[in-house]
Amino acid sequence: MTVTGTTTGVVTPRPTRAGIVRTWARSLTAVLRRRPVPAGLRHSAGVKQLVLVLTATEIVVAALLSSMLPAVARPLHAAFEMAVVLAWLGMVAALARHPHQVDEDVVVLRTGFLGDVTLPRAAVRGATPVVRTVPGRGPRPVPDEPVAVACSVGGSLNVAIRLDPPVRLDLGLTGPVDAATVYGCVDDLPALAAALRRTAPGPSRHGD
Q1: Alpha carbons 91 and 47: distance in angstroms, whole number
Q2: pTM to 2 decimals?
Q3: What is the rounded CA–CA span in Å between residue 66 and residue 125?
Q4: Which of these, 50, 98, 129, 148, is most buried using a 10 Å CB contact count?
Q5: Long-range contact pairs involving 51-55 (C-beta distance under 8 Å, separation at least 24)
């Protein structure tokens, strides 16, 4: 007997700006203290690489600009640039320290600081590679697919998680979606497939 009906997942909403900053600060502090990275599947490699390039560029430009500023303005400028660099490094740290999770009970797609989507493992049928873009950030509806949800930091997505039965996800202001597909981003697609195979529910979870 197969599972029928609609199950319910959990959508962690986007935090406030202050909450995002706190997440960046905690993540960067954990990196500086060399705390172990939680086990899971890494994601958002493209975003991390872009932010690191921007950070390096900002440091170079800031040094050049500082040399042209009056001496009295340099401390204020240095403080501003330090805040910008630390914020971007905190963003990268948040992405690195909040990996996706796959276990026998749930599949959690994380963004690091923009909200997460938790799916019951029993409803996940598999993951297939895709190449597509969905506007927005964090958990959000997919404009041209009424039974799909996207969850990512960037707009570019590379994996589609197939759900059967559909999973109801409450997206807040945009309302609930009975999702048959959740799009996301993962750095290692074979690792995700292996994790899903390893945690595949046995016959007892689906019935006879």
Answers
A1: 10
A2: 0.88
A3: 55
A4: 98
A5: 51/88, 51/91, 51/92, 52/88, 52/92, 54/88, 55/85, 55/88, 55/89, 55/92
